[in-house]
Amino acid sequence: MENRFERNFIIDNNEAVLNIENAAIFLGISTATVRNWVKSGYLQTIREDAKYLFHRKEVENIKSRIKNGDIEKLNKRANKSKTNKTFIPEEYIQDGVSFNELNSIVNFIKINSVSLLPALLLIALNLLKKEKILLKADIQDIIQKKDLFFTNKEIEGEIKPWILEIESEKIKEEFSFLLDCDIPQQRDVLGFLYQSILHEGEKSQSGSYYTPSNIVNEIIVNYVKKDSKVFDPCCGTGQFLLAFSDVIENPLNIYGIDFDKIAVRIARLNILIKFKNKNFIPNIICKNTLLEVGNYDLFSLKDKSIKDFDIIATNPPWGVHFSGGDLEKLNKFYPEIKSLESFSYFLKKSIDLLSEDGIISFILPESILSVKTHKDIREIILNNSQIIKIVYLNRVFKNVFTPVIRLDIKKCKGIKGSIQICKGDKNYFVKQKRWLNNQDFIFDIHADGVDAKIINKIYQTNHTTLKNRADWALGIVTGDNKKFIIEEAREGFEPIYKGKDVEKFVLNKPMNYIKFLPEKFQQVAPWQVPIF
Ligand SMILES: C[S@@+](CC[C@H](N)C(=O)[O-])C[C@H]1O[C@@H](n2cnc3c(N)ncnc32)[C@H](O)[C@@H]1O
Protein backbone atom coordinates (compact mmCIF):
# COMPACT_ATOMS: atom_id res chain seq x y z
CA MET A 1 0.00 0.00 0.00
CA GLU A 2 2.82 2.39 0.86
CA ASN A 3 4.52 1.66 -2.50
CA ARG A 4 1.38 2.72 -4.31
CA PHE A 5 1.45 5.87 -2.28
CA GLU A 6 5.15 6.49 -3.07
CA ARG A 7 4.45 6.68 -6.79
CA ASN A 8 1.52 9.03 -6.47
CA PHE A 9 2.55 12.36 -5.15
CA ILE A 10 3.16 15.64 -6.95
CA ILE A 11 5.63 18.38 -6.15
CA ASP A 12 4.59 21.91 -5.19
CA ASN A 13 7.17 24.50 -4.09
CA ASN A 14 9.67 21.68 -3.59
CA GLU A 15 7.29 19.89 -1.26
CA ALA A 16 5.56 16.60 -1.99
CA VAL A 17 1.81 17.01 -2.14
CA LEU A 18 -0.86 14.31 -2.02
CA ASN A 19 -4.35 14.42 -3.40
CA ILE A 20 -7.27 13.11 -1.38
CA GLU A 21 -7.23 9.58 -2.82
CA ASN A 22 -3.56 9.10 -2.05
CA ALA A 23 -3.86 10.59 1.41
CA ALA A 24 -6.72 8.13 2.06
CA ILE A 25 -4.65 5.17 0.81
CA PHE A 26 -1.68 6.17 2.92
CA LEU A 27 -3.74 6.58 6.06
CA GLY A 28 -5.80 3.45 5.35
CA ILE A 29 -9.12 5.30 5.52
CA SER A 30 -11.82 6.30 3.07
CA THR A 31 -11.81 9.62 1.21
CA ALA A 32 -15.01 10.53 3.11
CA THR A 33 -13.11 10.15 6.39
CA VAL A 34 -10.28 12.31 5.03
CA ARG A 35 -12.86 15.02 4.26
CA ASN A 36 -14.23 14.73 7.80
CA TRP A 37 -10.76 15.01 9.32
CA VAL A 38 -10.15 18.17 7.28
CA LYS A 39 -13.47 19.65 8.33
CA SER A 40 -12.79 18.90 11.96
CA GLY A 41 -9.34 20.42 11.85
CA TYR A 42 -7.21 17.29 12.32
CA LEU A 43 -5.74 17.34 8.87
CA GLN A 44 -4.58 20.58 7.25
CA THR A 45 -4.79 21.17 3.51
CA ILE A 46 -1.80 22.91 1.89
CA ARG A 47 -3.73 26.16 1.66
CA GLU A 48 -7.22 27.29 2.58
CA ASP A 49 -8.20 27.46 -1.11
CA ALA A 50 -6.55 24.16 -2.10
CA LYS A 51 -9.33 21.72 -1.49
CA TYR A 52 -8.01 18.36 -0.40
CA LEU A 53 -4.35 18.69 -1.28
CA PHE A 54 -2.03 17.79 1.56
CA HIS A 55 1.65 18.15 2.21
CA ARG A 56 3.07 14.68 2.42
CA LYS A 57 4.81 15.67 5.67
CA GLU A 58 1.43 16.53 7.22
CA VAL A 59 -0.05 13.16 6.26
CA GLU A 60 3.02 11.29 7.50
CA ASN A 61 2.91 13.24 10.71
CA ILE A 62 -0.74 12.30 11.31
CA LYS A 63 0.03 8.67 10.56
CA SER A 64 2.88 8.51 13.05
CA ARG A 65 0.79 10.31 15.68
CA ILE A 66 -1.93 7.71 15.25
CA LYS A 67 0.65 4.92 15.50
CA ASN A 68 2.17 6.42 18.65
CA GLY A 69 -1.26 6.75 20.19
CA ASP A 70 -0.89 10.57 20.36
CA ILE A 71 -4.25 10.96 18.73
CA GLU A 72 -6.91 8.79 20.22
CA LYS A 73 -10.17 8.02 18.50
CA LEU A 74 -9.26 10.01 15.42
CA ASN A 75 -11.83 8.05 13.53
CA LYS A 76 -14.51 9.08 15.97
CA ARG A 77 -16.17 12.45 16.14
CA ALA A 78 -13.67 15.28 16.28
CA ASN A 79 -13.62 17.42 19.36
CA LYS A 80 -14.11 20.79 17.74
CA SER A 81 -14.05 22.71 20.96
CA LYS A 82 -10.28 22.30 21.16
CA THR A 83 -9.29 23.37 17.66
CA ASN A 84 -7.26 26.50 17.11
CA LYS A 85 -8.12 26.50 13.44
CA THR A 86 -9.94 29.37 11.81
CA PHE A 87 -12.11 29.14 8.72
CA ILE A 88 -13.80 31.62 6.45
CA PRO A 89 -17.60 31.32 6.54
CA GLU A 90 -18.15 31.78 2.81
CA GLU A 91 -21.88 31.30 3.23
CA TYR A 92 -22.00 34.58 5.19
CA ILE A 93 -21.12 36.64 2.08
CA GLN A 94 -24.14 37.88 0.17
CA ASP A 95 -22.88 37.71 -3.40
CA GLY A 96 -19.87 35.40 -3.37
CA VAL A 97 -18.13 37.94 -5.63
CA SER A 98 -16.56 39.77 -2.69
CA PHE A 99 -14.91 36.62 -1.37
CA ASN A 100 -11.45 37.33 -2.78
CA GLU A 101 -11.34 40.91 -1.49
CA LEU A 102 -12.50 39.84 1.97
CA ASN A 103 -10.14 36.89 1.94
CA SER A 104 -7.19 39.20 1.25
CA ILE A 105 -8.12 41.26 4.33
CA VAL A 106 -8.33 38.10 6.46
CA ASN A 107 -4.97 36.93 5.09
CA PHE A 108 -3.38 40.30 5.87
CA ILE A 109 -4.61 40.04 9.47
CA LYS A 110 -3.26 36.50 9.83
CA ILE A 111 0.08 37.01 8.09
CA ASN A 112 0.81 40.19 10.08
CA SER A 113 -0.47 38.65 13.33
CA VAL A 114 -2.76 41.62 13.94
CA SER A 115 -4.66 41.01 17.20
CA LEU A 116 -8.43 40.69 17.04
CA LEU A 117 -9.52 44.01 18.58
CA PRO A 118 -7.05 46.28 16.73
CA ALA A 119 -7.91 44.52 13.45
CA LEU A 120 -11.64 45.04 13.94
CA LEU A 121 -11.12 48.63 15.09
CA LEU A 122 -9.08 49.59 12.00
CA ILE A 123 -11.65 48.01 9.68
CA ALA A 124 -14.46 49.77 11.59
CA LEU A 125 -12.67 53.13 11.20
CA ASN A 126 -12.15 52.40 7.52
CA LEU A 127 -15.90 51.77 7.12
CA LEU A 128 -16.72 54.96 9.03
CA LYS A 129 -14.43 56.97 6.75
CA LYS A 130 -16.18 55.52 3.69
CA GLU A 131 -19.56 56.39 5.23
CA LYS A 132 -18.26 59.93 5.85
CA ILE A 133 -19.01 59.55 9.55
CA LEU A 134 -15.30 59.81 10.42
CA LEU A 135 -13.79 62.79 8.64
CA LYS A 136 -10.15 61.80 8.56
CA ALA A 137 -7.82 59.36 10.28
CA ASP A 138 -4.43 57.93 9.42
CA ILE A 139 -2.55 55.20 11.22
CA GLN A 140 -0.41 57.66 13.22
CA ASP A 141 -3.58 59.32 14.55
CA ILE A 142 -4.64 55.96 15.92
CA ILE A 143 -1.23 54.98 17.29
CA GLN A 144 -0.91 58.35 19.03
CA LYS A 145 -4.55 58.20 20.14
CA LYS A 146 -5.28 61.62 18.70
CA ASP A 147 -8.78 63.09 18.86
CA LEU A 148 -10.84 62.03 15.86
CA PHE A 149 -13.81 63.93 14.42
CA PHE A 150 -17.06 62.08 13.94
CA THR A 151 -20.28 63.45 12.47
CA ASN A 152 -22.37 61.19 14.72
CA LYS A 153 -22.06 61.56 18.50
CA GLU A 154 -23.33 58.07 19.38
CA ILE A 155 -20.82 56.45 17.06
CA GLU A 156 -18.09 58.60 18.55
CA GLY A 157 -19.19 57.34 21.97
CA GLU A 158 -18.87 53.72 20.78
CA ILE A 159 -15.46 54.13 19.13
CA LYS A 160 -13.53 56.25 21.60
CA PRO A 161 -13.44 53.72 24.47
CA TRP A 162 -12.45 51.06 21.93
CA ILE A 163 -9.40 53.11 20.84
CA LEU A 164 -8.39 53.87 24.42
CA GLU A 165 -8.65 50.23 25.45
CA ILE A 166 -6.09 49.04 22.86
CA GLU A 167 -2.42 49.31 23.83
CA SER A 168 -0.65 51.57 21.31
CA GLU A 169 2.08 49.01 20.60
CA LYS A 170 -0.55 46.61 19.24
CA ILE A 171 -1.13 48.97 16.31
CA LYS A 172 1.77 49.26 13.88
CA GLU A 173 2.48 51.61 10.99
CA GLU A 174 2.23 48.76 8.46
CA PHE A 175 -1.34 47.98 9.54
CA SER A 176 -2.48 51.10 7.64
CA PHE A 177 -3.68 48.73 4.89
CA LEU A 178 -6.64 47.84 7.14
CA LEU A 179 -7.50 51.50 7.59
CA ASP A 180 -7.47 52.33 3.89
CA CYS A 181 -8.16 49.17 1.87
CA ASP A 182 -11.26 48.72 -0.28
CA ILE A 183 -14.03 47.01 1.62
CA PRO A 184 -16.75 45.35 -0.43
CA GLN A 185 -20.37 46.35 0.16
CA GLN A 186 -21.73 43.66 2.46
CA ARG A 187 -24.39 43.72 5.13
CA ASP A 188 -22.10 42.78 8.03
CA VAL A 189 -18.47 43.01 6.93
CA LEU A 190 -17.23 43.35 10.50
CA GLY A 191 -19.18 40.26 11.54
CA PHE A 192 -17.75 38.32 8.62
CA LEU A 193 -14.19 39.30 9.55
CA TYR A 194 -14.82 38.54 13.21
CA GLN A 195 -16.08 35.05 12.27
CA SER A 196 -13.08 34.53 10.02
CA ILE A 197 -10.53 35.41 12.70
CA LEU A 198 -12.22 33.65 15.62
CA HIS A 199 -10.91 30.18 16.42
CA GLU A 200 -13.14 27.28 15.51
CA GLY A 201 -12.94 26.05 19.12
CA GLU A 202 -14.36 29.30 20.49
CA LYS A 203 -17.13 29.29 17.89
CA SER A 204 -18.24 25.80 18.69
CA GLN A 205 -18.19 26.44 22.46
CA SER A 206 -20.71 29.27 22.23
CA GLY A 207 -22.50 27.94 19.15
CA SER A 208 -21.43 31.02 17.18
CA TYR A 209 -22.12 30.15 13.57
CA TYR A 210 -23.73 33.21 12.03
CA THR A 211 -26.63 32.83 9.63
CA PRO A 212 -26.30 33.34 5.85
CA SER A 213 -28.17 36.42 4.69
CA ASN A 214 -30.45 34.67 2.17
CA ILE A 215 -31.95 32.62 5.00
CA VAL A 216 -32.39 35.69 7.19
CA ASN A 217 -33.92 37.72 4.36
CA GLU A 218 -36.65 35.17 3.75
CA ILE A 219 -37.76 35.36 7.37
CA ILE A 220 -37.89 39.15 7.21
CA VAL A 221 -39.90 39.20 3.99
CA ASN A 222 -42.39 36.74 5.46
CA TYR A 223 -43.15 38.47 8.74
CA VAL A 224 -41.61 41.87 9.48
CA LYS A 225 -43.64 45.09 9.03
CA LYS A 226 -42.36 48.65 9.31
CA ASP A 227 -43.74 49.12 12.85
CA SER A 228 -42.97 45.61 14.20
CA LYS A 229 -41.18 45.29 17.53
CA VAL A 230 -38.49 42.70 16.98
CA PHE A 231 -35.86 40.86 18.98
CA ASP A 232 -32.86 38.60 18.41
CA PRO A 233 -32.07 37.00 21.80
CA CYS A 234 -28.56 35.93 20.72
CA CYS A 235 -27.83 38.49 18.04
CA GLY A 236 -24.11 37.94 17.41
CA THR A 237 -22.84 40.82 15.30
CA GLY A 238 -26.37 41.64 14.20
CA GLN A 239 -27.14 39.84 10.95
CA PHE A 240 -30.82 39.56 11.90
CA LEU A 241 -30.92 43.06 13.41
CA LEU A 242 -29.57 44.57 10.17
CA ALA A 243 -32.08 42.62 8.13
CA PHE A 244 -34.89 43.86 10.42
CA SER A 245 -33.70 47.39 9.83
CA ASP A 246 -34.23 47.03 6.08
CA VAL A 247 -37.96 47.18 6.88
CA ILE A 248 -38.36 48.75 10.32
CA GLU A 249 -38.35 52.54 10.48
CA ASN A 250 -37.67 53.16 14.17
CA PRO A 251 -34.34 51.67 15.32
CA LEU A 252 -35.63 51.62 18.90
CA ASN A 253 -38.02 48.84 17.89
CA ILE A 254 -35.05 46.60 17.19
CA TYR A 255 -33.71 44.69 20.22
CA GLY A 256 -30.72 42.42 20.51
CA ILE A 257 -28.82 40.60 23.24
CA ASP A 258 -25.67 38.51 23.15
CA PHE A 259 -23.19 37.53 25.83
CA ASP A 260 -20.23 38.01 23.49
CA LYS A 261 -18.89 41.49 24.24
CA ILE A 262 -17.10 41.94 20.90
CA ALA A 263 -20.11 40.73 18.90
CA VAL A 264 -22.36 43.19 20.75
CA ARG A 265 -19.94 46.02 20.09
CA ILE A 266 -20.05 45.23 16.35
CA ALA A 267 -23.85 44.83 16.35
CA ARG A 268 -24.31 48.25 18.01
CA LEU A 269 -21.98 49.88 15.51
CA ASN A 270 -23.72 48.14 12.59
CA ILE A 271 -27.13 49.51 13.63
CA LEU A 272 -25.77 52.97 14.35
CA ILE A 273 -24.21 53.09 10.87
CA LYS A 274 -27.41 51.80 9.28
CA PHE A 275 -29.42 54.62 10.91
CA LYS A 276 -26.57 57.14 10.78
CA ASN A 277 -28.88 60.12 10.40
CA LYS A 278 -30.88 59.34 13.55
CA ASN A 279 -29.99 60.11 17.13
CA PHE A 280 -30.54 57.10 19.35
CA ILE A 281 -28.89 54.62 21.69
CA PRO A 282 -29.30 51.09 20.29
CA ASN A 283 -31.33 48.56 22.29
CA ILE A 284 -28.53 46.04 21.96
CA ILE A 285 -26.83 44.84 25.12
CA CYS A 286 -24.32 42.35 26.42
CA LYS A 287 -26.08 39.90 28.75
CA ASN A 288 -26.66 36.22 29.19
CA THR A 289 -30.18 35.96 27.78
CA LEU A 290 -30.97 32.71 29.53
CA LEU A 291 -29.68 33.62 32.97
CA GLU A 292 -29.44 37.37 33.35
CA VAL A 293 -32.33 38.68 31.36
CA GLY A 294 -35.04 38.43 33.90
CA ASN A 295 -36.59 35.40 35.29
CA TYR A 296 -39.45 36.21 32.94
CA ASP A 297 -41.06 38.95 35.06
CA LEU A 298 -37.69 40.41 35.97
CA PHE A 299 -36.88 41.07 32.34
CA SER A 300 -35.86 44.65 31.94
CA LEU A 301 -33.61 46.68 29.72
CA LYS A 302 -34.50 50.33 29.55
CA ASP A 303 -37.96 49.63 28.28
CA LYS A 304 -40.41 48.00 30.67
CA SER A 305 -42.73 46.92 27.87
CA ILE A 306 -39.93 44.97 26.24
CA LYS A 307 -41.68 41.67 26.79
CA ASP A 308 -44.24 41.98 24.05
CA PHE A 309 -42.31 41.32 20.90
CA ASP A 310 -44.09 40.89 17.58
CA ILE A 311 -41.27 38.85 16.11
CA ILE A 312 -38.35 36.97 17.64
CA ALA A 313 -36.04 35.56 15.02
CA THR A 314 -32.62 34.01 15.36
CA ASN A 315 -30.33 31.10 14.96
CA PRO A 316 -29.80 30.09 18.59
CA PRO A 317 -26.71 28.20 19.77
CA TRP A 318 -27.08 24.41 19.58
CA GLY A 319 -25.52 21.80 21.81
CA VAL A 320 -23.69 24.19 24.12
CA HIS A 321 -22.02 22.55 27.14
CA PHE A 322 -23.06 24.45 30.25
CA SER A 323 -20.98 24.60 33.42
CA GLY A 324 -22.34 23.01 36.60
CA GLY A 325 -23.29 26.37 38.13
CA ASP A 326 -25.16 27.47 35.02
CA LEU A 327 -26.95 24.14 34.77
CA GLU A 328 -28.23 24.53 38.31
CA LYS A 329 -29.71 27.93 37.45
CA LEU A 330 -31.10 26.71 34.13
CA ASN A 331 -32.86 23.83 35.90
CA LYS A 332 -34.39 26.34 38.28
CA PHE A 333 -35.48 28.84 35.62
CA TYR A 334 -36.64 26.31 33.02
CA PRO A 335 -37.71 23.17 34.91
CA GLU A 336 -39.72 21.90 31.96
CA ILE A 337 -36.58 21.61 29.75
CA LYS A 338 -35.11 18.24 30.69
CA SER A 339 -32.85 17.87 27.65
CA LEU A 340 -30.43 20.63 28.81
CA GLU A 341 -30.32 21.68 25.16
CA SER A 342 -29.39 25.32 24.53
CA PHE A 343 -31.76 25.83 21.59
CA SER A 344 -34.66 24.56 23.73
CA TYR A 345 -33.93 27.09 26.47
CA PHE A 346 -33.88 29.84 23.84
CA LEU A 347 -37.16 28.65 22.37
CA LYS A 348 -38.85 28.54 25.78
CA LYS A 349 -37.50 31.95 26.73
CA SER A 350 -38.63 33.43 23.41
CA ILE A 351 -42.15 32.02 23.68
CA ASP A 352 -42.40 33.74 27.07
CA LEU A 353 -41.19 37.07 25.70
CA LEU A 354 -43.52 37.07 22.70
CA SER A 355 -46.82 38.94 22.50
CA GLU A 356 -49.99 36.88 21.94
CA ASP A 357 -50.10 36.13 18.17
CA GLY A 358 -46.42 37.08 17.94
CA ILE A 359 -44.12 35.06 15.68
CA ILE A 360 -40.95 33.10 16.33
CA SER A 361 -38.70 32.04 13.46
CA PHE A 362 -35.69 29.95 14.46
CA ILE A 363 -32.96 28.17 12.52
CA LEU A 364 -32.51 24.77 14.19
CA PRO A 365 -30.91 21.37 13.70
CA GLU A 366 -33.15 18.78 12.10
CA SER A 367 -32.85 16.68 15.27
CA ILE A 368 -35.46 18.85 17.02
CA LEU A 369 -38.11 17.19 14.83
CA SER A 370 -37.77 13.63 16.00
CA VAL A 371 -34.99 12.93 18.49
CA LYS A 372 -36.55 11.67 21.72
CA THR A 373 -34.52 13.99 23.98
CA HIS A 374 -36.27 16.99 22.44
CA LYS A 375 -39.79 15.84 23.15
CA ASP A 376 -39.91 18.39 26.02
CA ILE A 377 -39.64 21.40 23.72
CA ARG A 378 -41.86 19.79 21.06
CA GLU A 379 -44.65 19.43 23.63
CA ILE A 380 -44.21 23.07 24.72
CA ILE A 381 -44.38 24.24 21.10
CA LEU A 382 -47.47 22.15 20.28
CA ASN A 383 -49.33 23.36 23.37
CA ASN A 384 -48.43 27.03 23.15
CA SER A 385 -48.37 27.82 19.48
CA GLN A 386 -49.57 27.17 15.98
CA ILE A 387 -46.67 25.96 13.88
CA ILE A 388 -46.93 28.00 10.70
CA LYS A 389 -44.18 26.55 8.60
CA ILE A 390 -41.22 24.18 8.65
CA VAL A 391 -38.67 24.68 5.90
CA TYR A 392 -36.12 21.92 5.32
CA LEU A 393 -32.87 23.75 4.51
CA ASN A 394 -30.44 20.82 4.62
CA ARG A 395 -26.74 21.77 5.25
CA VAL A 396 -26.13 25.51 5.35
CA PHE A 397 -23.10 26.13 7.57
CA LYS A 398 -19.57 25.33 6.48
CA ASN A 399 -18.04 23.12 9.21
CA VAL A 400 -21.43 22.14 10.68
CA PHE A 401 -22.52 18.78 9.27
CA THR A 402 -26.06 18.67 10.66
CA PRO A 403 -29.01 19.27 8.32
CA VAL A 404 -30.89 22.40 9.27
CA ILE A 405 -34.55 23.44 9.36
CA ARG A 406 -36.40 26.70 9.85
CA LEU A 407 -39.26 26.57 12.34
CA ASP A 408 -41.88 29.35 12.30
CA ILE A 409 -44.49 29.41 15.06
CA LYS A 410 -47.26 31.76 16.18
CA LYS A 411 -47.94 32.04 19.91
CA CYS A 412 -51.53 31.01 20.64
CA LYS A 413 -53.56 28.54 22.66
CA GLY A 414 -56.56 26.55 21.47
CA ILE A 415 -57.50 24.65 18.33
CA LYS A 416 -54.62 24.06 15.98
CA GLY A 417 -54.72 24.23 12.20
CA SER A 418 -52.38 23.10 9.43
CA ILE A 419 -48.62 23.38 9.13
CA GLN A 420 -46.93 24.16 5.82
CA ILE A 421 -43.98 21.89 5.05
CA CYS A 422 -41.47 23.10 2.45
CA LYS A 423 -38.96 20.44 1.40
CA GLY A 424 -37.05 21.07 -1.82
CA ASP A 425 -39.67 21.52 -4.51
CA LYS A 426 -42.31 19.78 -2.36
CA ASN A 427 -44.82 21.90 -0.52
CA TYR A 428 -47.65 20.37 1.50
CA PHE A 429 -49.73 20.79 4.64
CA VAL A 430 -50.07 18.53 7.68
CA LYS A 431 -52.41 18.84 10.65
CA GLN A 432 -50.83 19.98 13.92
CA LYS A 433 -53.40 17.89 15.84
CA ARG A 434 -51.82 14.76 14.38
CA TRP A 435 -48.44 15.65 15.91
CA LEU A 436 -50.03 16.13 19.33
CA ASN A 437 -51.07 12.47 19.14
CA ASN A 438 -47.67 11.21 17.93
CA GLN A 439 -45.47 9.24 20.28
CA ASP A 440 -42.92 11.65 21.85
CA PHE A 441 -44.71 14.46 19.96
CA ILE A 442 -42.60 13.70 16.91
CA PHE A 443 -42.86 16.31 14.15
CA ASP A 444 -43.00 13.80 11.29
CA ILE A 445 -42.62 16.28 8.46
CA HIS A 446 -41.81 13.52 5.99
CA ALA A 447 -45.31 12.00 6.21
CA ASP A 448 -47.70 14.14 4.19
CA GLY A 449 -51.52 13.88 4.43
CA VAL A 450 -51.72 10.78 2.19
CA ASP A 451 -48.97 8.95 4.11
CA ALA A 452 -50.73 9.76 7.38
CA LYS A 453 -54.02 8.35 6.04
CA ILE A 454 -52.30 5.10 5.00
CA ILE A 455 -50.61 4.76 8.40
CA ASN A 456 -53.91 5.39 10.19
CA LYS A 457 -55.66 2.81 8.04
CA ILE A 458 -53.02 0.20 8.83
CA TYR A 459 -53.39 0.89 12.55
CA GLN A 460 -57.19 0.56 12.33
CA THR A 461 -57.00 -3.01 11.01
CA ASN A 462 -55.72 -6.01 13.00
CA HIS A 463 -51.98 -5.64 13.14
CA THR A 464 -48.85 -6.70 14.95
CA THR A 465 -46.03 -4.30 15.77
CA LEU A 466 -42.38 -5.00 16.48
CA LYS A 467 -42.77 -3.78 20.06
CA ASN A 468 -41.04 -6.28 22.40
CA ARG A 469 -40.47 -8.61 19.44
CA ALA A 470 -37.26 -7.26 17.98
CA ASP A 471 -33.94 -5.76 18.93
CA TRP A 472 -32.44 -3.10 16.76
CA ALA A 473 -29.19 -1.25 16.62
CA LEU A 474 -27.31 1.05 14.31
CA GLY A 475 -25.25 -0.88 11.78
CA ILE A 476 -21.57 -0.76 10.95
CA VAL A 477 -19.60 2.17 9.56
CA THR A 478 -16.36 0.54 8.43
CA GLY A 479 -14.61 3.80 7.51
CA ASP A 480 -13.31 2.04 4.38
CA ASN A 481 -15.71 -0.33 2.62
CA LYS A 482 -13.17 -1.24 -0.07
CA LYS A 483 -10.88 -2.62 2.58
CA PHE A 484 -13.38 -4.52 4.69
CA ILE A 485 -16.18 -5.61 2.36
CA ILE A 486 -15.97 -8.22 -0.41
CA GLU A 487 -18.50 -9.32 -2.99
CA GLU A 488 -18.19 -13.12 -2.79
CA ALA A 489 -18.64 -15.55 0.09
CA ARG A 490 -15.37 -16.61 1.69
CA GLU A 491 -14.32 -18.53 4.79
CA GLY A 492 -14.61 -16.36 7.91
CA PHE A 493 -16.81 -13.75 6.18
CA GLU A 494 -20.52 -13.35 6.78
CA PRO A 495 -23.22 -11.83 4.60
CA ILE A 496 -24.04 -8.23 5.30
CA TYR A 497 -26.92 -5.97 4.24
CA LYS A 498 -25.97 -2.58 2.84
CA GLY A 499 -28.45 0.31 2.84
CA LYS A 500 -29.24 -0.27 -0.83
CA ASP A 501 -30.26 -3.92 -0.13
CA VAL A 502 -33.15 -2.64 1.97
CA GLU A 503 -35.97 -1.52 -0.29
CA LYS A 504 -39.52 -0.46 0.44
CA PHE A 505 -41.29 -3.67 1.58
CA VAL A 506 -38.44 -5.93 0.35
CA LEU A 507 -35.14 -7.10 1.81
CA ASN A 508 -32.96 -8.11 -1.14
CA LYS A 509 -30.48 -10.97 -1.00
CA PRO A 510 -27.26 -9.60 0.51
CA MET A 511 -24.50 -9.29 -2.12
CA ASN A 512 -21.65 -8.33 0.22
CA TYR A 513 -19.61 -10.10 2.89
CA ILE A 514 -17.66 -8.85 5.85
CA LYS A 515 -15.24 -10.26 8.40
CA PHE A 516 -16.55 -8.93 11.69
CA LEU A 517 -13.62 -7.02 13.21
CA PRO A 518 -15.40 -4.38 15.34
CA GLU A 519 -12.19 -2.94 16.78
CA LYS A 520 -11.04 -2.01 13.27
CA PHE A 521 -14.25 -0.27 12.20
CA GLN A 522 -15.07 3.42 12.51
CA GLN A 523 -18.35 2.74 14.30
CA VAL A 524 -20.32 -0.37 15.30
CA ALA A 525 -23.43 -0.97 17.34
CA PRO A 526 -22.76 -2.38 20.82
CA TRP A 527 -22.33 -6.15 20.62
CA GLN A 528 -25.05 -7.79 22.69
CA VAL A 529 -26.68 -11.21 22.72
CA PRO A 530 -30.33 -10.54 21.88
CA ILE A 531 -32.75 -11.56 24.63
CA PHE A 532 -36.02 -13.04 23.45
C1 LIG B 1 -25.47 30.78 16.07
S1 LIG B 1 -24.95 32.34 16.67
C2 LIG B 1 -26.20 33.34 15.99
C3 LIG B 1 -25.86 34.77 15.82
C4 LIG B 1 -26.90 35.56 15.03
N1 LIG B 1 -28.18 35.51 15.67
C5 LIG B 1 -27.03 35.01 13.62
O1 LIG B 1 -27.94 34.23 13.39
O2 LIG B 1 -26.21 35.32 12.75
C6 LIG B 1 -25.38 32.16 18.35
C7 LIG B 1 -25.05 33.34 19.23
O3 LIG B 1 -25.55 33.05 20.52
C8 LIG B 1 -24.73 33.69 21.47
N2 LIG B 1 -25.06 33.07 22.77
C9 LIG B 1 -24.88 31.79 23.15
N3 LIG B 1 -25.37 31.60 24.40
C10 LIG B 1 -25.88 32.79 24.81
C11 LIG B 1 -26.52 33.23 26.00
N4 LIG B 1 -26.75 32.39 26.99
N5 LIG B 1 -26.93 34.51 26.08
C12 LIG B 1 -26.69 35.37 25.05
N6 LIG B 1 -26.09 35.01 23.91
C13 LIG B 1 -25.69 33.74 23.78
C14 LIG B 1 -23.33 33.44 20.92
O4 LIG B 1 -22.40 34.39 21.45
C15 LIG B 1 -23.58 33.63 19.42
O5 LIG B 1 -23.33 34.95 19.03
UniProtKB/TrEMBL annotation:
Helix-turn-helix domain sequence ranges: 18-60
InterPro entries to which the protein is assigned, alphabetical: DNA_methylase_A-5, DNA_methylase_N6_adenine_CS, HTH_17, N4_N6_ade-DNA_methylase, SAM-dependent_MTases_sf
Record bears the keyword Methyltransferase: yes
Keyword Acetylation belongs to the record: no
Catalytic activity: a 2'-deoxyadenosine in DNA + S-adenosyl-L-methionine = an N(6)-methyl-2'-deoxyadenosine in DNA + S-adenosyl-L-homocysteine + H(+)
Keyword list, A-Z: Methyltransferase, Restriction system, Transferase
Enzyme Commission (EC) number: 2.1.1.72
Swiss-Prot/TrEMBL GO biological process terms: DNA restriction-modification system; methylation
One GO molecular-function entry: site-specific DNA-methyltransferase (adenine-specific) activity
Origin: domain of life: Bacteria
Enzyme class: transferase
Protein name per UniProt: site-specific DNA-methyltransferase (adenine-specific)
Organism: Candidatus Staskawiczbacteria bacterium RIFOXYB1_FULL_37_44
